[in-house]
Amino acid sequence: MKQNYDSDEKTALQAKYDAQKIAFGPIMFQAAKALRDLGILELIKSRRKEGITMDEIASQLNLSVYGVKVLLEAGLSLEMVRVEDDKYILTKTGWYILSDELTRVNMDFVHDVNYLGMFSLTESIKTGKPTGLKVFGEWETIYEGLSQLPEHVQKSWFAFDHFYSDYAFPEILPKVLGNGVKRVLDVGGNTGKFAMICCRFNPDINVTILDHPGQLEKAYVNARAAGFADRISGVAINLLDHSKPFPKGPDVIWMSQFLDCFSQEDILQLLLRAKASLEGTGGSLYIMETYWDRQKFEASTYSLHATSLYFTNMANGCSQMYHSEDMLKLIERAGLYVAEEIDDIGVSHTLFKCKVKNN
Ligand SMILES: C[S@@+](CC[C@H](N)C(=O)[O-])C[C@H]1O[C@@H](n2cnc3c(N)ncnc32)[C@H](O)[C@@H]1O
């Protein structure tokens, strides 16, 4: 992470250039995506070091020279391509836009899930509502409508969600599921990915998923296909209804990439419900989240700050990718304590193992 956010040491020239990058950001984003999706970057990459002319790209891809020209010129300013003797060559940034899975997943998420809705971000800030969500439907939060979003939007949403958790899950399994764990409560368990990993990890483990009915349907299909139908069950629930207690007495309550879907007031209530479920049992609550202050790389912090605005405008209007101190204060207020913490899991996660105080 950039260690401090209290300095301003750019020259005026650099600052003005950076301001133009912001001013034209949405147009240049579309240019980068068009260069990727029209196959221009792929073709340039296939020519490696000798490069390829604009005319040849146009003819091979059946595009107008005009169209290829404006995109390639944008690509020069984006530093995605460079040009030598009229021949275009892919830069390192161009390679990342084309071939890096993390970048692709992020770009598709921005484009398919967020781009249209973000037009009303200011309104979301003023109203505390996810006003961008209306481009897809009339839900209070995106989670209620997730299974009804257009196919390509769902695909990008799930790819974004799964990319990050898929990398994180395998690393922490022995820590979370070792020591005779038998009953796992996966709060916000989505399509059952973690539940199935638990079942594979140890044949004695049974998992209950709490989530919206649309997500549970997908989880059941996946569980059946994997042969775990008898070990994975679900409770269809709107978790914002804090009058509904969590099932009592699991060995592990698992909340992965989940609490960022809620306001701080709601997180406190969810933690209190988790605590009530664990009271007197010796069980643990594991919270796996991406905190913007715990990142090793500026690129991660930047991505998390941007992702917060997805929550503001598209998801629910009130949550975000939190600072770890926000979460630690809520854990304390709920009467829990962090018994163990691990940073740098997967792409950018932190795991808090929480216990009930004076249990
Ligand atoms: C970002 S996903 C995380 C999924 C999974 N735990 C992972 O790590 O990949 C959040 C999950 O919480 C669920 N969720 C969010 N708000 C909810 C609510 N109010 N009631 C029930 N489920 C909710 C969503 O449906 C979704 O499956």
Automatic annotation (TrEMBL):
Q: Which InterPro entries match?
A: BVU_1015-like_N, COMT-like, COMT_C, SAM-dependent_MTases_sf, WH-like_DNA-bd_sf, WH_DNA-bd_sf
> Residues in domain BVU-1015-like N-terminal dimerisation-like?
19-88
Could you say which residues form the signal peptide? none
Q: Which residues form the O-methyltransferase C-terminal domain?
A: 179-335
Pfam families annotated for this entry?
Dimerisation2-like_dom, Methyltransf_2
A Gene Ontology biological process noted in the UniProt record is: methylation
What are the entry keywords? Methyltransferase, S-adenosyl-L-methionine, Transferase
* GO terms of molecular function: O-methyltransferase activity
Is DNA repair set as a keyword in this record? no
Highest taxon, organism lineage: Bacteria
TM annotation in the entry? none
**Can you say what this protein is called?**
SAM-dependent methyltransferase
Species this chain originates from: Xiashengella succiniciproducens
